[in-house]
Amino acid sequence: MVEFYKSLKGYKPSLIGIGILAILACFAIFAPFIAPYDPLKGHLSSRLEPPSAAHLFGTDALGRDLLSRVIYGARTSLRSGALVVMFSSIVGVFLGVISGYCGKLLDTLIMRFADFLLSFPPFLLAMGIVATLGPSLNNAIIAVAISYIGPLVRLVRGITVRIKEQEYIEAARAAGGNNWRIIIHHILPNIISPLLVQISLNFGTAIVDIAGLSFIGLGAQPPTPEWGTILSRGRYYIRTAWWLTTFPGLAIVATVLAWVFIGDGVREAIDPRYRKFI
Asked: Does the predicted TM-score (pTM) go above 0.85?
């Protein structure tokens, strides 16, 4: 753990990513205290005002403070990304381990299911699921999580198949260890490292996908302050009110870059082949 921390600390972009996420997390947690205005309350007399001292990010078409909506949008987007990653990781790891360790019929059935998910572009699959379930933020989270299960199943299965052939697994069986004990104590610990890299990359992609679904009307519904929804409403005024798309767009870019930097840092910290900076 100490070596991992030193390696992660030695990769400067990961520190930048952690710093950006720390700021966004503070915005999300303390939004009611940081946001200068109510994100849902507008004043038509102040509609489409450009950035100023009173409204640092300007106002939208209903006179709502854009800075407040972007701050509350951090809460919505980070929560959505966390739920997507948590759900897809739990299901993906469970199915991948069972597939790789048990083999035979279970392996065939699970891998055909994973192949079915992988046969569709993730965003297109998520669109189809949301269109079936109905437009809402919760349905968008479920849809994006399902679209991420296939790659995770393949990743975990490949690691499990490789590990279960190792001599120490045979020794654990010979010592009387049952299957669940071997999975929990020997296989899962070896999955954590590559899984952390995949999770960090999935987190940023999940935020983009949720925002994309909201942008086309399949995710968060107005007046929920969500970055994709704010972008969607702002596109109608992109020529006359540039701030409506610029600031939420920058928030999405900053969040995704932060997770990419962290993912690269984690990969270099856990894989000696990438430790060129040490």
From this structure: yes
